Amino acid sequence: MTDETMNGGTMGDDATSTTNDQPVADAQTDAQNATNVANMGDATDATMPADADAAAHAAATEAADAIDTNDTDESDGADAPHIEPLTATYERLRHSTDAAELHEFARRPLPDRGEQAAFSRATALLEAVAGNPHTPEEDRVFLASTMPFPNVLVKLSEDASPTVREAVAANADDKNWLVGRLTKDDVPAVRDKALHNKRTSWKMRLEGAQDPDMDVETLDFLSRLGAELEPDANVVLSSMVRRAVALNPNASQEILERLSADSSDEVVHAARRRLGQ
């Protein structure tokens, strides 16, 4: 995040201060906050790697290749049952229009992790099922809510249904770059779920607190971080988020009054200025 982005929601307000030294103090606060944002430990991780989708799929493909080899070796025996190559099954499920078949695969219990080949095959096939729009929505929501596998969640994070994306945004097993991407979703409910997710980085939370279109409910949540919620959170980063909430034009009177008694002087100053005190 650049200094300009960090200061965008605050410098205009600070410039209206009636005291001679207040603009200088506020500018120093903003400069320090900009430095803190630049040094956020999770700021890099919060940005989705450019090849994240490809990497998630590549991992599944690598497992698929290994499984295909094992399947071929195991089927050499005369009495061995025929096993359809994983790549063939994957493509069939990816293009299937049979909702009943897709439902069955989505709800099928996963093999024990100790059965490595079977487990890898099952999780690879779930990616195909998750990415197929003919899979019933309730099954896609089920996968989005319960699966911890990045290749599956990446597919579902791009689902046309906001309900499915909302379920991904709330998944506690999300990678922080994935939930960070969902904080920028076009649908407010998806963004809100992502910002409530503990996997969301402080950088994304700060940007959410600065968003002039953010709803009051989510601002209320963000205004409690480092206080009533997540009391062991980083003091500096959580206070930056609360200060941004205080400066957000959508912050309610109740939020501002509560923040005017905050433990951080910077938050108190921002809230009281908004209250005209």
TrEMBL record:
Pfam families: LRV
SUPFAM superfamilies: ARM repeat
Stretches for region Disordered: 1-62
Low complexity composition bias: residue spans: 42-62
Compositional bias segments (type: Polar residues): 29-38
Domain of life the protein comes from: Bacteria
Protein name per UniProt: AbrB family transcriptional regulator
Organism: Bifidobacterium choerinum
